[in-house]
């Protein structure tokens, strides 16, 4: 079925986004209005020259789509394309042959739209279609849709910034970091909490990722300054 966009409603919906959940809901609503079957949204926000924070959302069924979305780094061919281009392109040529076959077997057409924002952030919004009329509708209205995609990208960028400023640590992550702040090693933390050393290391690495920190001391400092722990 050919798509139909209520631009005012979609923009209002996009501007009301305040979390990953509401971003996913907005993307789902837009997907239905476009007459698409699925979406894949990924945004990359540079932290350093070698590290990126990534927000990735999709509604692709695992059984056929896991391979399309498993790479969340700039090594992903879709991310590489999005970082260097602005034009809409077909997804299939960017993928390895086995993933091209996955699309073909599902009779899906994937269209990738690169999006660029503030702070060198970039991303891609891919929609999957089965109906050729919906593909033509998308292509004919891509300039109008670009305004919507830009708002979605801005909201995703804001979500990542808020998550970095107010990271939500699990109780176990807080426990591990508390003992590290007392000068304990990973091995000692594991013994105190009666968990495996590998598990303690896993929780502490999660803290580094959530706080966008290079090391544990930096993570502790950030969390102390914003009052998130202790």
Secondary structure: elements and pairs:
Blueprint: H1 7-15, H2 20-34, E1 38-46, E2 52-58, H3 62-69, H4 77-84, E3 89-90, H5 97-105, E4 109-116, E5 122-129, H6 132-140, H7 142-165, H8 171-181, H9 186-193, H10 197-211, H11 216-225
Antiparallel strand pairs: 1-2, 1-5, 3-4, 4-5
Helix pairs in contact: 1-7, 8-9, 8-10, 9-10, 10-11
Order of helices and strands: HHEEHHEHEEHHHHHH
How many separate helices?
Answer: 11
Q: What is the class of the largest domain in the CATH system?
A: Alpha Beta
Question: What portion of residues belong to β-strands?
Answer: 5-15%
Keywords: DNA-binding, Transcription, Transcription regulation
Organism: Gallaecimonas pentaromativorans
Protein name: DNA-binding CsgD family transcriptional regulator
GO molecular function: DNA binding
Explain briefly what this protein structure is:
With 230 residues, this protein is an alpha+beta fold. It has helices spanning 7-15, 20-34, 62-69, 77-84, 97-105, 132-140, 142-165, 171-181, 186-193, 197-211, 216-225; strands spanning 38-46, 52-58, 89-90, 109-116, 122-129. Helix 8 packs across helix 9.
What would you note in describing this structure?
There is one protein chain. With about 230 residues, the chain is α+β, with helices and mostly antiparallel strands. The protein folds into two domains: about 5-165, Transcription factor LuxR-like, autoinducer-binding domain (Beta-Lactamase, 2-Layer Sandwich); about 170-225, Arc Repressor Mutant, subunit A (Orthogonal Bundle), CATH 1.10.10. The protein contains eleven helices and five strands; from the N terminus they run ααββααβαββαααααα. A five-stranded antiparallel beta sheet has the order 2-1-5-4-3, with helices on both faces. A hairpin with a 5-residue loop joins strand 1 and strand 2 (about 50-60). The model has no long low-confidence stretch (mean pLDDT about 85).
């Amino acid at each position: 079925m050919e798509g139909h966009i209520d631009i005012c409603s979609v923009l209002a919906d996009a501007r009301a986004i305040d979390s990953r959940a509401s971003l996913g809901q907005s993307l789902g609503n837009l997907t239905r209005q476009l007459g698409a079957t699925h979406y894949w949204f990924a945004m990359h926000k540079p932290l350093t020259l070698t590290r990126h924070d990534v927000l990735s959302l999709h509604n692709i069924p695992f059984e056929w789509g896991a391979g399309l979305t498993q790479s969340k780094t700039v090594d992903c061919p879709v991310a590489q394309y999005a970082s260097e281009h602005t034009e809409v392109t077909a997804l299939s040529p960017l993928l390895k042959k086995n993933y091209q076959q996955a699309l073909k077997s599902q009779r899906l057409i994937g269209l990738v739209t690169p999006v660029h924002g503030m702070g060198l952030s970039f991303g891609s919004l891919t929609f999957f279609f089965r109906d050729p009329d919906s593909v033509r509708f998308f292509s004919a209205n891509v300039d109008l849709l670009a305004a919507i995609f830009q708002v979605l990208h801005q909201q995703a960028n804001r979500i990542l910034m808020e998550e970095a400023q107010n990271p939500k640590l699990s109780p176990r992550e807080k426990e591990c970091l508390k003992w590290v702040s007392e000068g304990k090693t990973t091995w000692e933390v594991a013994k105190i909490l009666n968990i495996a050393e590998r598990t303690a290391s896993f929780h502490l690495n999660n803290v580094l990722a959530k706080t966008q920190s290079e090391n544990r001391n930096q993570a502790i400092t950030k969390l102390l300054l914003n009052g998130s722990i202790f």
